[in-house]
Amino acid sequence: MQHNGIEFNTYFKNFPDQNGYFGKYGGAYISEDLKNAMAEITEAYFTICKSSKFIGELRKIRREFQGRPTPISYLERLSNSIGNVQLYVKREDLNHTGAHKLNHCMGEALLAKYMGKKKVIAETGAGQHGVALATAAAYFGLECDIYMGSVDIKKQAPNVARMKILGANVIEVKEGLATLKEAVDAAFKAYSKEYKDCIYCIGSVLGPHPFPMMVRDFQSVVGIEAREQFISMTGELPDAVVACVGGGSNSMGMFAGFLNDPVDIYGVEPLGRGTKLGDHAASLKFGSEGIMHGFNSIMLKDEQGEPAPVYSVASGLDYPSSGPEHAFLHDLGRVKYDVVNDEDAVNAFFTLSRLEGIIPAIESSHAVAYGIKLAKELGKGSVLINLSGRGDKDMDYIIEKYGIR
User: Fold this and answer.
1) pLDDT in tens, 101-118
2) How far apart are CA 115 and CA 199, in angstroms?
3) Catalytic residue among 123, 325, 356, 363
C-alpha cells in the first residue's frame, strides 16, 4: 500500500532512518554525555533485537507473565444502542498491571539487564508506566526511581501505592505545573547524572532516538495481535481503528498492525476544557514544529516558543507534544488526528462500564468516545478501539469530580 509517496509494505525498514528521523521529526537533541549514553542503548538494542535468545525470553515473558495475547471483545450492547456499526475493543486492560505499558517496560528492563545496568529511571503521568516499570524492575531485580508530578500523585493515589508496594522509589516533582512534562524534565536531569549505572526507560514513543523506535517496536505486539484476531473473528479487516494519543505509545503500537492495510486510522487527542491554550493537550491539532525533551515533533508553544501549559482530565495524556512518528503520520495524512473533550470522555467512561461491564481508563475513554461518535457517522461497518488500560486508577477521582452518572 502506498500513501503520499510512502510505501507502507517497507515502512518499518525505512522509518526511522539511521539518525532516528521520521521525515523531519525525531532525532536526538541532547548533550554530548547523553549522546554517548544513547549510542550505547542504540547499539545494544540493535544487537539484541535480532537475537533469538532475547526474542525467545521476551515471548516467554509475554505469554507466562503478562498474559498475552490479550483478547478482542465484541461490544454487542453498545453496538446495538448505536445502530448498525459493530464496535470491538482490544483489551490491553487485561494485560498484567492493567495497561499496555508493560509491553515496552519488560523489553526495556530486559535491555537494561543485557547492558549490565543496576537501575531503571522513568517518569509517569497516570502512573501506569510507573507501575509497569516498577513491576519489570521487581521481575528482573533492578532498582527503580519513578518521577511523578504532585498533581498526578494526588489524582492517581492507587497507582502510587502500587509502585511503592512493588519496591519503587516514587520521587515527587513540585516544579511548574507539577504534571507529566515536569516529571520528564526531572527524570532526564537525574539520568544525565546516573547514566553509567542505569537506563532511562521512556514511557512513550518520544524522547531522543532510539526510544521512539524502540517503544514502537515493543508496543507493535498490540497491533499485530489485533489484526490477526480481528480477521479470525470476522473474516475481514475492520473499517476503522481508533486509539487515544498523548505521547502515543498505545496508539503507535495499535496503528503498526494496520498501516499497510486499507483501513482508516484515527488518533484521538484530549481537548480538555476547550480550544484555549492551557485548556487542552491536543498538540497535533493545534501545535507547530518544535524541539523538547530531546526530539523534534509537533508541540504546543507559549508566546516565547517554550512548551505551553497543558491540561486534560487524563493524566496520561497531558503532554505538550506527541511522538515524532505521530507527527510524521499526521503530515502524511495516513492517520487522521481528532479531539475529544473531558465531558465526552467521562460520558464514555460510564457508558462502557454500564453497557459492557468494562471500566476503561479515562485515557482510553477518549478513544471509546470517538469510536462511538465515528460509529454514528459511518452508519455501517466495524470499528476497532484500542482499550489501552483499565479504569481502577481513575474511579476515586472521577467520582469525586463528576459523581456517579
Assistant:
1) 999 999 999 999 999 999
2) 9
3) 123
Active site residue 101: yes
Q: Which of 238, 215, 222, 239 is nearest to 325 (CA)?
A: 215
pLDDT at 5: 86
Is the CB of residue 249 less than 8 Å from the CB of residue 203? yes
Q: What CATH code is assigned to 22-62+101-211?
A: 3.40.50.1100
**Out of 251, 269, 388, 393, which one is annotated catalytic?**
388
Catalytic residue of the set 90, 101, 181, 301 = 101
pLDDT score recorded for residue 246: 97
CA distances in angstroms from 372 to 80, 194, 334, 385, 386, listed in the order given: 11, 46, 21, 10, 13
Across residues 276-293, what is the average pLDDT? 97
Cα dihedral angle (324, 145, 46, 58), rounded to 10 degrees? -110
Place 299 in a pLDDT band, splitting at 50, 70 and 90.
very high
Which has the minimum average pLDDT: 74-78, 192-196, 361-365?
Answer: 192-196
φ and ψ at residue 96, rounded to 5 degrees? -55, 135
Higher pLDDT, 155 or 321: 321
Domain ranges of the chain: 22-62+101-211, 67-99+220-402
Q: In what helix (H) or strand (E) does residue 26 lie, and over which residues does it extend?
A: strand 25-26
What CATH number labels 67-99+220-402? 3.40.50.1100
